Amino acid sequence: MVTLMDFKVTEETTLKQAIGMLKEKKWNLLPVTDEEGCLKGVFTRSGLYGMLLEEKPLHTPIKDYIKKDAKAVSIDTPYEKIEQLVGKSDVGTGVVLNKEGKVAGLFTKTDMVMALLRTADALKELETVKKLQATLETALEHAYDGILMADQHQLIQMANPSLLDFFGLKKEDVLHRKVDEVLPQIKLSKVYQTELAEISDFKESNGIKYLVHRIPIMEDGQLVGALGKITFRQLNEVNELFRKWQKAESKAKFYHQQLEKTESARYTWEHIFTIDPQMEKLKKSAAKAARGRSTILIRGESGTGKELFAHAIHNSSARRNGKFVVVNCAAIPEDLLESEFFGYEEGSFTGARQRGKIGKFDLANGGTLFLDEIGDMSLTLQAKLLRVLQEREFYRVGGTSKIKVDVRIIAATNQNLEEMVRQGQFREDLYYRLNVISLNIPPLRERVPDTGFLLGVLIKELNMLLGTSITGIEHEAHEALLGYSWPGNVRELRNVMERAMTFAEHGKILLEDLPDYLLGEIPSFPAKGSISTVEEAEHVAILRALSQTQGNKAKAARILGISRSGLYEKLKKYELNV
Ligand SMILES: Nc1ncnc2c1ncn2[C@@H]1O[C@H](COP(=O)(O)OP(=O)(O)OP(=O)(O)O)[C@@H](O)[C@H]1O
Fold it and tell me: Where does the CBS domain lie (predicted)?
């Protein structure tokens, strides 16, 4: 509310004085009182225009142009009434009378916003303003966008939960602190210099793109504060095209990376996120080993980051300018593996591929060859690999001349090679040749601090990749994620988060966004007439194995101790569409 202590408008006030006051105060009307301060009416802008149109001299008193039926409210009017009056009024201004019925001030729409900024005790005492403040605060608390208000000294007076969540701050960390100290990135101080409203360029926090609207709050031509509005959700939700474009771009990037994957190492030690002491030690040992020439064997369950380590080793080795070539020994059919490794000479095969092919060993010359899933290599090929490792030369398929190579081998496996050696499935000499330096990556369930830490890292990374704006994880969902044993390790964690972030609708990941198996729920069975207990158990075992292997049927069959075709039969039997 604007108090009227500093001036008085009566019927005798002249046109010139009225223009001066309206201009100076930037009001829509002037309350006109008698000498005692009792309201006689209001002098509005339309009264002013009337006088000017009739070309009245500037010294003419305003008395004939006063609106006598002026609406006024008493100072103890309940908030709802004030809201009605101000909200519906064209001029958006109300006259406030004190308990004696005398004009106490004006109440404008601007006051609604200003009420929040005012901390002066005198104003706080006023019941109407207090109620107004509470109502406005409630509205702002529930605002979709992040909103922050600062006073004329750049001290934060209000920050709504959406803003606090977005920047990961607590109310007590920001209130009454200087904006630039706690939120330098939104650059609200600019408004205090320019007094101009502006919209920032795209910014990014935790992988979420956002815009800042900086708005000065002016009162009577003076800057009394500033408002910062952070728009982030709408950017992705409303602008569907932008999202689609982002997705297409990410996909293109992903495929491009996949294409490049076999020949360049993209990851370094910084990409291996961990706060687990055991892992940090392992990273240090691996970095040391990287500097040498020895063959390295990386062991660990599926999804623990073996390939990531291999990339980082290559990138910190003397060979980092050479190629990093990946061969997944399990993915290439046995009969093609040899030519994949060693290439073939022109004319070795009939048909389209007559022109010969360069093998992975050739490709990796001067660089690193990463042999993933080495345990899946046949004994014949193991013998050939051993020869290359010993003699550093090989023959192309169908070729007669020896080719010399300088390749460092990093091999990885999640199988028990010692057991395989005992059973004659893996050559002992090759085992010793590969196992010069061995790195054992622990499973995620044994890296206690890492799960929580990786959740934060993944939110940031996936926000960027998926174009989502997830700011956090709701308590129950967080507990469920921490409580799960992650048989598929970081890969599974990443997949679950990707799915949850795609499903999450309210900016936070909720329990309902997580897959059922994570919540320890036993999946429901098809409502079949007479399903036996044995079948029930079998059904559950299959579902568990599939969830553990992320739907990989070959691996699930192995866990269950049945053949792949056997598993397909069971899937058909239980009508499992996976
Ligand atoms: N410490 C980590 N920090 C960040 N991402 C990780 C980490 N460990 C693994 N990942 C991610 O998890 C996924 C699986 O990692 P990677 O392929 O290196 O595992 P792997 O042990 O080689 O798996 P597999 O044995 O199945 O080939 C990748 O997306 C990788 O980026």
Answer: 1-58, 66-123
* Structural domain of 83: 2-125
Could you tell which of 267, 304, 308, 493 is best to mutate to test the pocket of ligand 1, judged by most ligand atoms within 8 Å of the CB? 308
User: Which atom of ligand 1 is closest in space to residue 413's alpha carbon?
Assistant: 25
Same domain (yes/no): 479, 564: no
Q: Which residues in the chain come in under a pLDDT of 70?
A: 1-7, 25-28, 70-71, 73-94, 104-144, 233-264, 347-356, 520-534, 536-537, 540, 544, 547-551, 575-578
Q: Would you state the pLDDT for residue 520?
A: 67
Answer for the pair 434, 411: CB distance below 8 angstroms, yes or no: yes
> Would 133 be classed as within a structural domain?
no
How much is the pTM? 0.56
Ligand 1 center–CA 427 separation, angstroms? 27
Show the tokens assigned to 87.
Answer: 């909200």
DSSP 8-state class, residue 316? T
In whole angstroms, how far apart are CA 328 and each of 112, 333, 373, 394, 397?
66, 10, 6, 20, 19
Residues touching ligand 1 (Cβ under 6 Å) are 272-274, 300, 302-308, 372, 412, 414, 490-491, 494
* DSSP character string of 333-388: -HHHHHHHHHEE-TTSSSSTTTT-EE-HHHHTTTSEEEEETGGGS-HHHHHHHHHH
